[in-house]
Amino acid sequence: MEFNAFHLIEEGLAQELEKQGFSAPQPLEDPAGQAVIFATDEVAYSLLYDRQHQRFQLRSTTLTADKKPGDWRSLSLWMFDEKEGTRADAESILNDFLEVVQGPKRVALVQQQKKQRGKGDERNVDPLFFLNRLVNIFPELKGELNEEKIVYGQVRFVTFVKEKVVPKCQDLAVSYPDSEPVKKLCSLLDDMYKDGDMDLRSILTIVLLNGLDDKAFENLKAHIGDELQKEVKYTRKLKGKKIKPEKKKKKKKVVARLDDRR
């Protein structure tokens, strides 16, 4: 009995992605060949069989405001000849695609567990909350955040701030030092530092502010509040320096002599 490789891979992906909140596969028009799309409100995966190049491709994208896919990003690519390919070949491709969509999910669950906070902790604003607020100043971050989530299953906060946020803040602070957006940014930094958890505080000072050059840093510093001013006075000195972890002191062993117990 002949099998349909596309349907086999499509059904396997559908079973996994529906567990993650994605829609059932829907036909997708693509000039390269047969394709389907699995979507949430903001992001999507797509399975494509490129007939000209005889290959299966797993892709991801973010969705526009009217739920249309943006530019597709290739996540995995496998050659497959429809005439000579076997069921075992198709299952191997499916297993690889499943690893791609399952891996980030497992990482996200681990990260979520690590984020559990103790009751009564007032400083409970985390880095994701900050980045979502930052979208009001840099709207283009919304698409970049969605792309980060679909590719990695989480937001790699330090890497994301370093690669996506710092350049935007650098350009804004240098090009428009006394503008309203700069003042809004500094006000946000003040609020986030005041209420942020330890992860967010470290990201704001060591990653974001220390990632700026001296001119941009001084322009922002002129607008930030007293609490953050005091902190950056010290953290700026650590810019570019490698900090070695403190060595643990060896505990002295206390040996009771026989005479001491008499």
Detailed description of the structure:
With 262 residues, this protein is α+β, with helices and mostly antiparallel strands. Helix content is 48%, strand content 12%. The chain has 9 helices and 5 strands, in the order αβββββαααααααα. It has a 5-stranded antiparallel beta sheet with strand order 1-2-3-4-5. Strand 3 and strand 4 (55-62) form a beta hairpin. Helix 1 packs parallel to helix 2 (87-114) and helix 5 crosses helix 8. The radius of gyration is 25 Å and the shape is elongated. The termini are far apart.
Main sheet, how many strands, which sense, barrel? 5 strands, antiparallel
Q: List the uncertain runs.
A: 109-121, 243-247, 252-262
Q: Quote the beta fraction.
A: 5-15%
Mean pLDDT: 82
Count up the helices.
Answer: 9
| Strands, total number | 5
Class by helix and strand content?
Answer: alpha+beta
Percent helix among the residues? Answer: 40-55%
Give, in spatial order, the strands making up the sheet with the most strands: 1-2-3-4-5
State the assembly state of the protein chains: single chain
Structure summary:
The chain has 262 residues and is of the alpha+beta class. β2 and β3 form a beta hairpin.
Short key terms for the protein model shown above:
262 residues; alpha+beta; five-stranded antiparallel β-sheet; 9 helices; 5 strands; 48% helix; elongated; disordered C terminus
Fold blueprint:
Blueprint: H1 5-19, E1 26-27, E2 33-39, E3 43-50, E4 55-62, E5 73-79, H2 87-114, H3 127-134, H4 141-152, H5 157-175, H6 180-195, H7 198-208, H8 214-221, H9 226-235
Antiparallel strand pairs: 1-2, 2-3, 3-4, 4-5
